[in-house]
Amino acid sequence: MHTNAPAGSANRAAASLAELVRFRTVSSRVPAEVDTDEFEAFLAALPRLYPSVHACLEVERVNGLALLFRWPGIAHDADADAGAGNRADVLMAHYDVVPAGDGQAWTHPPFSGHNDGTHLWGRGTLDDKGQLVAILEAAEALLAAGFAPARDVYFSFGNNEETAGDSAAAAAALLTARGVLPWLVLDEGGAVAGGAFPGVSRPAAVVGVAEKGILDVELLTRDPGGHASTPPRMGATARLARAITRIERSPFPQSLPEVTAEMLRRFGPHAPAPLRVAFANLSLLRVPMTWLFGRLGNETNAMTRTTVAVTTLEGSAGANVLAATAKANANIRIAVGDTVAGTVERLRKVIRDPKVELRVVEGNEPTPVSDFAGPQWELLEGCIAATFPEAIITPYIMMGGTDSRRFTGICDAVYRFAPFAMDASDRGSIHAVDEKISLETLGRGVRFYETLLRQL
Ligand SMILES: [Zn+2]
Q1: Between 20 and 30 A from 266 (CA), which of 56, 187, 315, 350?
Q2: What's the CA-to-centroid distance between 377 and ligand 1, angstroms?
Q3: Is the pTM of this model over 0.85?
Q4: Hey, which bits of 335-448 come out as E strands?
């Protein structure tokens, strides 16, 4: 029988998290919409909730509202003496949250931190204040037990992951300037997902080893404009519509990334019979499997290619006025292995209309792929197995972005995983209504970080 974390530490974590959820640390791309008083109040609560952490670790502000803790290691690092830089590990989380939307739609108010005896409710419980609390609770407990890590451990807590993400970039730059070369970076991303794979009853601990690139491209068409009673052929809106239709008709080419193939191999033995055979013979069936993935559903399709979603559309402001310009935004998730430049190039080719202007609004390349073998992966796998023995552990490629992408320049072993069990409805509540974390999984999360920290 698997033993849970002591109820005491789970209760403590829940009480702290409840308090921290009540601060409305809502991110916005519009600086005037960010209530910095709430962020300051959140930061001011931490020393009281985690006194040993604040007494024993160095802490500094980064980029205004982000925090960087340094837990000094006791073992002197020979690599540093050799001029190879100071090896360290970085545990990440962020405390900004997305807006709660219509608070009336929530079962319990989104910033109440309501504890119903089994779950703690509120915006940020899963994304990502719960992870921040699990890290700090683990550190507080280890300090109370007299523990200190062998090497330096940093906690990097972001304040704008949901928007700019520049605080994480600033933290990475700061470590670089100090010659710190992280051996391992662990941030949010995957989780212990129930019902993640069709026909597989065991939960899957999915660890992000890479992130697709994110690219926003503006499509712009122009026209002299004028009165809608005398429209030209192929005006700005019609030209834009044709471009969008062409993009829609020519999806990006498919491939099955090695990470996804590895995921299928790991799921294979637990899958129903026909899939089990298919996954065991993946090297032979790679082409038909890739094809199948493209048609199975939107999620599996997104695993195999660069995807394009036209998100915003803009034409004329008046019902009887021709559009002088028409605009659309294409939100593109670039497959690992593709590039921003190559993606824009292909869009141009598919649209085949020089009168459609393309402008890159913002673009991030896909990240490098962290190894899913080797000492860092094995350490992580061991800690996950110790905490979630029922889970199948597998690497995957994240569709979304995290702060940790900013650390890929200084570390080869960047992983994205929150040590929390989440079923399909939990996962659906992230960035939606009724976000909540089970007290049991919060306790397990604390234990995961204790296990990990003891081995750093
Ligand atoms: Zn997040």
Answers
A1: 187
A2: 22
A3: yes
A4: 357-364, 392-398, 414-422, 436-438
